[in-house]
Amino acid sequence: MSDRSQLIETGQPFIFDEQRDAEFERLIKRYPSRESMILPALWLVQEQEGWISAEAIAYVADRIGTFASKVYEVATFYTMYHLQPKGKYHICVCRTLSCYLLGKQEIVDYITEDLGVKPGEVRADGLYSLEEVECLGHCGSAPVVQINGEFYENMTVEKLKELLATLQ
Amino acid sequence: MQVKVLSARFDIPDANTIEVAKKHGAYATLDKIFAMQPEEVTEVVKASGLRGRGGAGFPTGLKWTFLPKGLDKPVYLAVNSDDSEPATFKDRYILVRDPHLLIEGIIICCYAIRSNAAYIYIRGEYTSQVKVLQAAIDEAYAAGYLGESVAGHDFKLDVTVHRGAGAYICGEETALLESIEGKKGQPRSKPPFPAVEGLYGCPTIINNVQSIASLPFILANGADAYKAYGTEKSPGTHLFGISGLVKKPGMYELPLGLPLLEVIEKVAGGLREGRSLKGIIPGGSSTPVLTAEDAKTVTLDYESMAAHGTMFGSGGIVVLDDTVDVVKLVENLIHFYHHESCGQCTPCREGLGWMLKIVQKILNYEGTTADIDLLLELCDNIEMKTVCVLSAACTMSTRSYLNKFRSEFEAYVAQSASKHATM
Ligand SMILES: Cc1cc2nc3c(=O)[nH]c(=O)nc-3n(C[C@H](O)[C@H](O)[C@H](O)COP(=O)(O)O)c2cc1C
Ligand code: SF4
Ligand code: FES
């Protein structure tokens, strides 16, 4: 189910940068209700900062004109919103059906044992974080891995090693 | 066996751009439909026999007729692009390879149902896909196919992409509406059905991406041309996603009604060397499994699947060979549904967690025969006692493995007994 993390305060005020501000204003015209902007606004925050802080939640609520608790509720229900900073490379490995059948566990084991980061954790140096996620809609090219939103298909431990080497 | 109806432009380079798509026929149906009355468009869709491709197979044209007449509220279209039932990965091809096909379908549908606003609900994980789709929408606006006057006709249409954020349950149509409204994705009790009271309390039609993308062909060529594919009760073509333990997994467009085993053999390259078939999941993870024996006679259509005690589902076929440990597979599936439960119904939230613990106990060689029966009992007690059918998706599939592959569960139990005896 959902992320039950506590919100983290950065001590810094949050505001959208110019580009996100414009996108917020473009999108809000598309909905008859301002609260429909909660999900899109949280995406804008995450694109800008990489994660969603307590200040950002308050800012979004304020911009929309709703309660911070409503924004918080959404931010904690949907698993893709990060309530804490992730690694520079956030690796999501699909753990479901077709990826399971085609060996996702070897990939998870490699990341856990060799890269030293367990599912749900960020490595101490901040380089990697790992998450085991449910079906990513690429089952025909299983097993799949998503790194910072990009899909990598038909993965093997070898391919992942090469990929991580080129990313750095 | 493969056909190119929906996928006609999939292999054309840059068919995601309006320029190339138009060269190959995109938006050609618009003049034709705007010369018809909206009800006439609906009639053609009804006559085509198109059934919803989101999994339930509800006739598309018929669904549109459920909208109340003469209301002065706006009507909305929500296009379901959640593509999230495990083993389902077909809609993504439309979004990325031919987004203008989807947009043209949306225009046709919105004209027929008299809607001026459509929302495409796309799963949050599709980060690069959403960019391709949004770029196509921007092009369609610039070319005058969307906006104040669609293709110069007296018809206004706005299309907005709404991104989910990682919740399978938002594929369920009312959870999807909640999510567009800015809430947690928790399904609503029905009735009222969305056609009467949907998005923002207004009449709303929810259709799957593939259902909508089937419309341009139907309107361009007529209902009979569509019905020339498939069977009488399951007309048309379908994007099938074949995955699991086959040589050539992938997405293939096929007419409905083909023998499943022949498709696995000829289209997906058959099983891997030296392997034998254990079973096939016919239409996404929630559909009851077929044994190798069942698979011999089943065909890829709604009637045959029902006659074999399962469902056509979403066209996501998973091939299981003799290397598969069914108990571990069931653990994987229950984990999925438990994880994705929205949490508002106790039987689903607690029951699926309980089922997961029991299967894990069996896998840890601590289970008994009574645990197997308890699992079956839980399935009966959870199913149909909840707001939506997510829980049933889990129990129906789990029950099928328990019944058809009970010996594999018993083998674990027998080993537990001998382990404990030696201790
Ligand atoms: C738990 C659950 C998940 C679903 N996921 C999807 C999905 O990912 N995509 C989809 O089109 N329909 C999904 N559906 C079916 C939708 O509720 C709905 O029936 C469908 O979008 C209607 O479109 P159609 O009539 O064109 O098939 C799901 C249903 C349930 C109960
Ligand atoms: S059955 Fe499960 S997913 Fe569906 S509404 Fe109830 S708790 Fe939510
Ligand atoms: S099961 Fe991994 S992408 Fe679908």
Structural account:
The complex is a heterodimer of chains A (168) and B (423). Chain A has 168 residues and is of the alpha+beta class. Chain A has 7 helices and 4 strands; from the N terminus they run ααααβααβββα. A 4-stranded mixed β-sheet of chain A has the order 2-1-3-4, covered by helices on one side. The radius of gyration of chain A is 18 Å and the shape is elongated. With 423 residues, chain B is an alpha/beta fold. Chain B is built from 19 helices and 9 strands. Chain B has helices at residues 18-23, 30-34, 38-48, 60-64, 91-97, 99-113, 127-142, 173-180, 209-213, 215-221, 223-227, 260-267, 292-295, 302-307, 326-340, 346-363, 369-382, 390-404, 406-422; strands spanning 76-81, 117-122, 158-163, 204-208, 237-244, 250-255, 277-281, 290-291, 316-321. Classes of the chains: A alpha+beta (168), B alpha/beta (423). Chains A and B meet through α2, α4 and α5 of A and β3, β5, β9 and α15 of B. Residues 52-56, 58, 60, 63, 80, 82-85, 169, 171-173, 206-208, 211, 388-390, 393 of chain B line the site of flavin mononucleotide.
Number of helices of chain B: 19
Uncertain segments of chain A are none
Strand order of the largest sheet of chain B: 6-5-9-7-8
| Strand arrangement across the biggest beta sheet of chain A | 2-1-3-4
Tell me the total number of β-strands of chain A: 4
Instruction: Please give the oligomerization state of what you see.
Output: heterodimer
Strand tally of chain B is 9
Helix-strand pattern of chain B: HHHHEHHEHEHEHHHEEHEEHHEHHHHH
Q: Give every kind of bound small molecule, once each.
A: flavin mononucleotide, iron/sulfur cluster, FE2/S2 (inorganic) cluster
Strand share of the residues of chain B? 5-15%
* Amount of beta strand of chain A: 5-15%
Helical residues, percent of chain A = 40-55%
Biggest β-sheet of chain B, characterized?
5 strands, mixed
Shape of chain B: globular
Q: Please mark out the parts of chain B with pLDDT under 50 across 5 or more consecutive residues, or reply none.
A: none
Distance between the termini of chain A: 33 Å
Mean pLDDT of chain A: 95
Alpha-carbon Rg of chain A, integer: 18 Å
